[in-house]
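re: ur question from earlier - yeah i can do the single chain one, its not a big deal. heres the input i used so u can compare w yours
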Amino acid sequence: MKNKALGFSLAGSLLIILFMLFINYTTSPGFPWFVYPVFAVLWWPLGVYTAQRGGVKFITVTGSLLTIVFFIIVNLTTSPGFLWCIFPIFGVIWWPMSVLIGRGHAKLYSILGFALITGFFLIINLVTSPQYLWFIHIAYPAVWWPLSVFLAKKKTIRVYSLIASLLTIAYFAGTNLSLTPENLWFLYIVFPLILWPALMYTKKQAGSLPVAIIGSLTGITYYMVLNIFMSAGHPWILYLVLPFVWWPVTIMFGKATKKIAFLFISVSVFMLYYSLLNIFVSPGYPWSLYLLYPYAWAVIGMYFGLRRKGFALSIAATLITAVFVSIMNLVLTPNTIWAVFPIFTILWWPMSLYFFKIRNRKQQSVA
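and the output i got, formated as tokens:
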């Protein structure tokens, strides 16, 4: 019975192919359109054979080859001046590659996947715009795949952090020097990228106070030098001083940082510091008001969240949002009253909690 089904599918497919070829030749011999139905028809015996004997691996390999040949033929017969077939072929190749080596061969799969992605976009780059090698911007995130598979483990995590940091610095440095060599902006991200492997190699000392103090002073010094030599006109280093200082401060207070009192103190210090910077360093625009909103959310989130008071949190958040957007409305665009829209939206939060939770709970307790 199985052989009959396979033989019938082969004979039927051959009959259909010959019929389509005859129609194509007699009606429009100038264009081989018969390849389109033939491509679909060939899946019939292929599917029958796979169901009987072939298995998943057979259908993926033969099906992929059939699809690739189909797109190549269509490309060469319709528009040979541009090899657009590489786009669907790129997607088709992932099918057999995933089935054959995807399971149990994560390292090999990551390497081949990275090579496939990089090679594909390199070809596109060279064909469409060889004057600029933009494929690097795709190769950079793609290389993190095999890098993570090989090294993102407990035993090799330090080596992983070092290689990843150096790779990222090299990528941004190359992008900077190729596009905007007059402005060395990549230097601003070098310190945090170096800090990551540095802290990893300090092992258990990474959370100690001496490491925090050294890291904080190093960061302040590094960005101060950048401020002096790259943009001496504005002391933007002052905006970074407090976060760097607060690093050893949080280490010094230890478990006390988990208390609500420390959060209130931190919020007050940050708001006061940046408000003074806003007034004396950049008084042209009240940007410090924007910091008040997320800080207020942090406070009420900590206070009501620890006490599991969701309804009270919704009321406090609504009031804070209403006050904040109202102030922004008056400061930025006093002639256009747009604050009513976010206020209207957030009012649904406490209202929904009241009618669907608080009120139902009260009715159930009365009943």
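Residues 2-27 form the longest helix (26 residues). not sure if urs matches, ping me
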